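Hey, can you fold this?
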Amino acid sequence: MSDNDQTSQAATSQRTSAPGKAANAIWTSDDKLTLVRFLADKKSEAGDGMLFQKKTWVEASQMMTGIQMVGGPKTADACKAKWGCVSSLFCIFWNTDHMICR
């Protein structure tokens, strides 16, 4: 699905959300890459297995909120869940200086 399709889907989602219910977070390709780069910068805060603390997810959510274009809020839990999905797809390996991603 292209970013344009996701944007259109997000607009429809926002219009059709039930009253009082928050819209779902919509993750564009740029959003996912931004999250991966943010976490690469925070690598030293991760423990074994690249498990980040709650504080890191809160910071990621705040950072994503500042750049969000479509969809509902990207909460700390949403950022953590998205990392669980994209980490195996984007990350080749972690080395001592940086993460190499596709």
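Oh, and this one too while you're at it.
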Amino acid sequence: MTREIDLIRDGSAWPSIVCIGFTPASKPGYLRGWAELHLPRIKLRLHSCPCFVSNEGAWVNLPSKEIGKDAAGKARYAAQLEWNTRGIQDAFSAAAVAAVDAYAPAWREQP
């Protein structure tokens, strides 16, 4: 099931975001999986967007690249893309969360 989600911000239309795939995480934690997102108006696909849930809510980030491990052996990541402002990132995340909700309604549950 795909459904376009539009976000209106500051009087201009946010490009619709469609979730076209979701891969759930295999371990419990904040990371619940990775979404494949499509922004049809600008003909852009984003692969492996990490999707998170905490007590403070749900959010989706742009894809990132693993750059190594910290001293505890936990993976460290570096951004490959970023929005110009935190406001734009938050607007993207809200629209992406809505798109993932429409595609995979149970994605917020722990594995």
